[in-house]
Design a protein that fits this description.
- This protein is of the alpha+beta class.
- The protein has a single domain, classed as Nucleoside Triphosphate Pyrophosphohydrolase.
- About 20% of the residues lie in helices and about 35% in strands.
- The strands form 2 sheets. Strands 1, 4, 5, 6 and 7 form a 5-stranded mixed beta sheet that branches. Strands 3-2-8 form a 3-stranded antiparallel beta sheet.
- A hairpin with a 5-residue loop joins strand 6 and strand 7.
């Protein structure tokens, strides 16, 4: 039987226009050791906004101003081949705090467009970040 899962990913940007990326722990089953955007699974009954705030709190513990609606969506088949996921991209502006990583990540960086090219990050996320840098995400003024 097929399963379905919702996930949120968040492009967090700072006053310099740089984007926060996180390096995944090598022990994780999904994209081990690769760079990633903050985010994760939407829990049953959770709103988009509460999923975004929870994931930010769990993974990096900073304060952000988040958009309440997704700016981009995608779907695909998960690594285990029996789960279809629905992904929703959000944009959040960094407000305050020091990044404190959860056990899921080993490093973080604030990157600019040029640095993105050299990161080992899933191509879908790389494409989304390029769209952000190129100001090609619909319905969002930044």
């Amino acid at each position: 039987m097929a399963n379905f899962r919702g996930v949120v990913k968040i492009i967090v940007y700072n006053d310099n226009g740089n984007v926060l990326v996180l390096k995944r722990n090598k022990e994780t089953t999904v994209f081990p050791g690769m760079w990633d955007l903050p985010g994760g699974k939407i829990e049953f009954g959770e709103t988009f906004q509460s999923a975004v705030i929870r994931e930010i709190s769990e993974e990096i513990k900073i304060d952000v101003d988040a958009v309440s609606n997704p700016v981009f969506g995608w779907t695909g088949i998960a690594y285990n081949k029996d789960t279809q996921f629905f992904g929703y991209l959000f944009i959040a502006k960094y407000v305050a705090g020091n990044v404190i990583l959860s056990h899921e990540h080993t490093d973080y960086r604030w990157i600019n467009r040029a640095e993105l090219e050299h990161l080992d990050i899933h191509q879908d996320f790389k494409d989304m970040i390029y769209k952000f840098f190129d100001k090609k995400l619909d319905d969002f003024n930044y």
